[in-house]
């Protein structure tokens, strides 16, 4: 088992657990109604919240299957960056400890997704 597979499994577990629990405890609807609609996305907050969570589920499955990894990664990174901008940046860096609900978790997921998407690093394009 190589490191890339371990990272894909770990990120998939995180994306699935972050999404699936909200599907069954009304968390997604609450996020859409009580947060997204309140910050200017009304009346589309619930739709956006479900779109975000379903994109996480699809990305997790694609990462596990090792299919369309870059597409899944780019979509998820976009969602994570928007989460930083809209939710986490105002809370600072720390998720716990030195603060609460900060950007560090999203930052780590973004870097891990980039490592998964580009396992051999970023290659310079050769021009002839």
List the helices and strands and how they pair.
Layout: H1 3-24, H2 27-36, H3 45-65, H4 69-88, H5 104-117
Helix pairs in contact: 1-3, 1-5, 2-3, 3-4, 4-5
Short key terms for the protein model shown above:
0% strand, mainly alpha, 5 helices, 128 residues, globular, 68% helix
How does this structure look, described?
- Helices cover 68% and strands 0% of the residues.
- The model has no long low-confidence stretch (mean pLDDT 94).
- By secondary structure, the protein is mostly helical.
Q: Average pLDDT, to the nearest integer?
A: 94
By DSSP (H or I, 4+ residues per run), the number of helices equals: 5
The count of β-strands is 0
Sheet/helix structural class? mainly alpha
Shape: globular
Element string (H = helix, E = strand): HHHHH
Q: Report on the biggest sheet.
A: none
Work out the radius of gyration.
Answer: 16 Å
How many angstroms separate the termini? 38 Å
Q: Low-confidence parts, pLDDT < 50 over ≥5 residues? A: none
């Amino acid at each position: 088992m190589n490191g890339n597979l371990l990272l894909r499994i770990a990120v998939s577990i995180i994306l699935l657990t972050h999404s699936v629990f909200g599907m069954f405890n009304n968390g997604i609807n609450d996020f859409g109604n009580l947060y997204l609609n309140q910050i200017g996305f009304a009346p589309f907050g619930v739709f956006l919240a479900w779109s975000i969570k379903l994109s996480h589920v699809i990305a997790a499955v694609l990462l596990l299957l090792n299919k369309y990894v870059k597409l899944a990664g780019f979509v998820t990174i976009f969602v994570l960056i928007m989460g930083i901008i809209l939710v986490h940046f105002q809370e600072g860096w720390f998720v716990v400890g030195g603060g609460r609900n900060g950007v560090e978790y999203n930052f780590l997921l973004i870097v891990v997704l980039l490592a998964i998407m580009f396992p051999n690093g970023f290659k310079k394009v050769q021009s002839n």
